[in-house]
Each structure stands twice: as structure tokens, then as C-alpha cells.
Specification:
The chain is mainly beta and about 280 residues long. Helices cover about 0% and strands about 35% of the residues.
């Protein structure tokens, strides 16, 4: 399988999934528990109606950008699952971090915790502590309004598979991360996985076949590419998605260098019928 190789990049990344903060501090839950060593973050499930739990991380080191990144999504599968654990496989031994959990109920209500106390990473070593995709300057995503599609194009004739610079420890499950493109409206962000042909640029990603209803008739921004690894934990009956840090990629019109800042997919373009 042809993939982007995840490795460390020094260029600035965009925060793909914005964190929702409560305005009144009384609405915050207690901070996640963090270990003296290691990076397994723990919190008690807020209530049995929590269908998803977002895990956010801030790198608090002096040289970091202190941006909150969405690094994990937990899906408790039973109401009996009270203790939620998240292991940050992409933390670095010379960096300091804080973590926050955001609990999402079945009705969409979000409840945030306080940020955790600061801990030091323990798994990876590198001079450029960001695991992300590397996007060559010659690579763009083309948006075609004629068929509402996206296509990855490298104008230099290459592919999005640059080799890492070798200054990073191999990280756990590295080969299992899949590329996904992140699309964002004013109210929601979603990551859509790319198959081999879509990633290589030999096949288009047709938006009318993947977009949910609330992405139609509204402005959409193509934020960039992110790595996605899904793990099913049989011991505690919970699914977890791990996210790399996002990498921006320029969106243009086909055959041009004209940037597309946002685009709109009309509902009439879909092949289905509302029911």
C-alpha cells in the first residue's frame, strides 16, 4: 500500500478540530489524571450517555506553539465502561504536555475537563517534535466544481511519499496510520479517509458520495491531511482513534495555481433523496 510516511515536520500545522470550552468555570470537570512517568492519560467517564470523548493536547514547552490539537477520539461501547484510558504514542521525551478530555453526549452536548497537570513525554526522540505528513511545495489538492470532487496532484510528477529524515524513533503502529483529508464548515470538522488510488492522485474523491447532510449548501474549507489510526481495545471494550498533527495543503482549481479558499456543494448535486 502506498502511504504518506508520517514523520516530523518543523512547519506550522493547523488545528483541525477546535476544542469547545465552557464559559463558566463551574461547568468544567476535574482534570484528567496523568502518570509520574509515561503518557497514559486517565479519566472517569462523565455519564453513561457519553458517546464520544475527544482528547486534546497542548505542547507547553518553551519552543512550542502552544496550540491545542485533537490527538484522540474514544468511543466507549458499553455503559459499564467507567474508566477511560488514552496512551499518547506520539509524545516526545524532551517535550512537556497538558491534556484535556471533552465528553460528548448523544444529543451533542459537550462538557470539558480542566487541563491536566504538566507531564514530560516518554516515547519518541527527535529534534523536530511534531508527527505529521510532509507536503511538497509542488503538491496541491484540486477542487473540481463540475463534479464536486477533490484530487491530489503533484505538479512535479512525484507522489506524496517522501522519506523521513531519519531523526525520529519509529513509533508504535506507524505503518497502520491511514491518510485522511479534513473538511471543515463553520460548525463542524470531519476527516475522510483516502484509499490508495485517491492518495496517489489516480482517482478522485467525489464529495457527493461522502458528505453528510450538514455539509451541503454551506461553505467548506479543505484544511489539510491528517493520519488516522483506529484501535479496538478488547480489554476495556472501547474503540480509540489516534490522530497525527494536521498538515496543511493548498487547494486549487484544476490545472491552475489559483487558490480555492472555500467551496460549496449544492444539495441538488447528490444522487440520493431525503427521507
Amino acid at each position: 500500500m502506498k502511504k504518506l510516511f508520517l514523520f516530523l515536520s518543523i512547519f506550522a500545522s493547523l488545528c483541525l478540530f477546535s476544542c469547545s470550552f465552557a464559559e463558566d468555570e463551574s461547568e468544567y470537570l476535574s482534570a484528567p489524571s496523568v502518570p509520574l512517568t509515561g503518557t497514559t492519560i486517565t479519566h472517569t467517564r462523565y455519564n453513561s450517555s457519553n458517546t464520544e470523548v475527544y482528547v486534546y493536547r497542548i505542547n507547553t514547552s518553551a519552543t512550542a506553539d502552544h496550540t491545542a490539537y485533537h490527538v484522540g477520539t474514544l468511543f466507549p461501547k458499553t455503559i459499564a465502561e467507567d474508566i477511560l484510558n488514552f496512551t499518547d504514542y506520539l509524545s516526545f521525551t524532551d517535550q512537556k504536555y497538558k491534556y484535556q478530555f471533552v465528553f460528548i453526549d448523544s444529543d451533542g452536548t459537550k462538557t470539558s475537563t480542566y487541563w491536566s497537570s504538566e507531564i514530560t513525554g516518554s516515547l519518541l526522540r527527535s529534534n523536530t517534535p511534531e508527527v505529521t505528513y510532509v507536503i511538497p511545495d509542488t503538491c496541491n489538492i484540486e477542487y473540481d466544481s463540475a463534479d464536486y470532487s477533490l484530487k491530489i496532484v503533484d505538479t512535479a510528477g512525484g507522489t506524496l511519499a517522501p522519506v523521513g529524515d531519519g531523526n525520529t524513533d519509529p513509533f508504535e503502529h506507524q505503518s497502520e496510520y491511514e491518510p485522511a483529508v479534513v473538511l471543515q464548515t463553520s460548525s463542524r470538522s470531519m476527516a475522510f479517509e483516502l484509499n490508495d488510488d485517491q492518495f496517489d492522485g489516480t482517482e478522485k474523491l467525489f464529495l457527493t458520495s461522502i458528505l453528510p447532510n450538514d455539509f451541503y449548501d454551506t461553505e467548506i474549507k479543505c484544511v489539510g491531511l491528517v493520519g488516522k489510526y483506529t484501535q479496538n481495545n478488547k480489554d476495556n471494550n472501547m474503540e480509540c482513534i489516534y490522530w497525527s498533527e494536521p498538515a496543511s495543503i493548498k487547494t486549487v482549481y484544476p490545472g491552475t495555481t489559483t487558490q480555492v479558499k472555500t467551496f460549496t456543494v449544492n444539495r441538488s448535486a447528490g444522487t440520493g433523496t431525503d427521507y
